[in-house]
Amino acid sequence: MTTDKIEFIDLAAQQARIKDKLDARIQAVLAHGKYIMGPEVGELEKQLCEFTGARHCITCASGTDALVLALLAIGIKPGDAVFVPSFTFVATAEAVALLGAIPVFVDVDPVYFLLDLNSLKDAIEYVSKQEMEPRAIIPVDLFGQPADYDSINQFAEQHNLTVIADAAQSFGGELNGNKVGTLAPITTTSFFPAKPLGCYGDGGAVFTDDDNLADRMQSLRVHGKGKDKYDNIRIGINGRLDTLQAAILLEKLAIFPDEIRLRNEVADRYAELLNGNVKTPSVRKGAMSAWAQYTLQVEDRGTCQDNLKQAGIPTAVYYPLPLHQQTAYEHYPRPPAGLKVSEELSQRVFSLPMHPYLTEAMIERITAVSPAVLSKAKVS
Ligand SMILES: *Cc1c(COP(=O)(O)O)cnc(C)c1O
Hints:
Elements: H1 11-32, H2 39-52, E1 56-60, H3 63-73, E2 80-85, H4 91-98, E3 102-106, H5 117-128, E4 133-137, H6 149-158, E5 162-166, E6 174-175, E7 178-179, E8 186-190, E9 204-208, H7 211-221, H8 243-274, E10 287-288, E11 294-297, H9 301-310, H10 340-348, E12 349-352, H11 360-375
Parallel strand pairs: 2-3, 2-4, 4-5, 5-8
Antiparallel strand pairs: 1-9, 6-7, 6-10, 8-9, 11-12
Helix pairs in contact: 1-8, 2-8, 3-4, 3-7, 8-11, 9-11
């Protein structure tokens, strides 16, 4: 019993819970045969609007495509500057660079790992002296917690910048009672299998309340189609979500609120049992995390991970290198003060197993190893 295998993310346990419903949904798609933009896609978009409270949802082929669609929709062009945190997954900056625009790296704060407003101010001041036009900010809701949108939206308005929330890790989270998807003018998310709401392949979505942006993204998702699909009115991409993935997401969305509740229970239990022994993650006042990852900070990460591994507990490092130190991105600009927090965090973070199906016994097993091991490596 107590030797139940601990998975880092347990998709099999989730599948067992809804297997019959998933099978029925998949069979329904095979029966109607509308594999591209079938009825499940529209049904999912409607339900995602209801879930988030956003006016429009445009599903798409991945979280990366969601970012590309958002950037294309606001007319980002070569030479434009887009501010992105350095401590994130590569896609945040990649989408910008792919369009020939310039990702300008910004630091994160050391407590919540979220975009740091002071570093953003430095970066904008720096960019305004160069030949780049500042256009947008992409805050990342790292590890599941919404960024400080109250401050960021206000700052963006003052500087005439568009905010695109990269909510690939925070779907299901909230800020001041409002759901992720409504916290910025445009929100992108990912349905990659390991994200809080994942499908069985690649998938993503964009949310907005703006009718014009929504129209444009619907067109951009299908090669920039006009009213007639053989008269394309702009340059777009092939960025549709598969009907099969929409069908799977519909069943996963039905249990998603319960899963978010369970993830929060796991996080609370971790915090109780690890309290004082190691630097556990903090959630901002008014925020509810979707807990994509449960990330600790330690001095000696290697030893911690080795000890946990010996006890049969999987861990992972997100992210071992900040973007501005990666080969393809090291030439992009950053504020003169540098990106010290991103560099430090990448040296000392690692994540414990996090999913809704961790039992009390599993959490106790994980934390029973951790305090003894981790306290030696505690960050002072
Ligand atoms: C996963 C992720 C993405 C990209 O999503 P894909 O669906 O894999 O393309 C973008 N940004 C962040 C922060 C992510 O974690």
